[in-house]
Amino acid sequence: MKLSNSTYDLLKWIAQIFLPAFTTFYGVIGAVCDIPYTQEAITIMIAFDTFLGALLGISSEQYNKDKEDK
Q1: CA-closest candidate to residue 16, choices 51, 53, 47
Q2: SS3 1
Q3: Distance in angstroms (rounded) separating the CA atoms of residues 13 and 70
Q4: Is the dihedral of CA 48, 50, 55, 59 positive or negative?
């Protein structure tokens, strides 16, 4: 499956900017307000961000490889 440039750019922004910032924000608010399961939620968000980053890295590598082959 190929991603359009705009979809790739959006997913990259989510993985590199939004999710780390939101995870930090949620972690701080969760700790201050004593929200249950904050640590578990942070762990899940970090795991998802890592997964998304890996998929985007593979996609980028494949795109660059295809570009070189042409």
Answers
A1: 53
A2: coil
A3: 28
A4: positive
Q: Which residues contact 23 (CB under 8 A, 6 or more apart)?
A: 42, 45, 46, 49
**Average pLDDT by consecutive 10-residue portion of the chain (70 residues)?**
86 96 98 98 98 90 77
The CB-side HSE value for 11 (13 A sphere, CA atoms) comes to 17
Reading the block at residue 61, the tokens are: 């590598």
Rounded to a whole number, what is the largest CA-CA distance in the chain? 55
pTM reported for the whole predicted model: 0.83
* Residue in this structure with the two tokens 């996609």, named with its chain if needed: 59
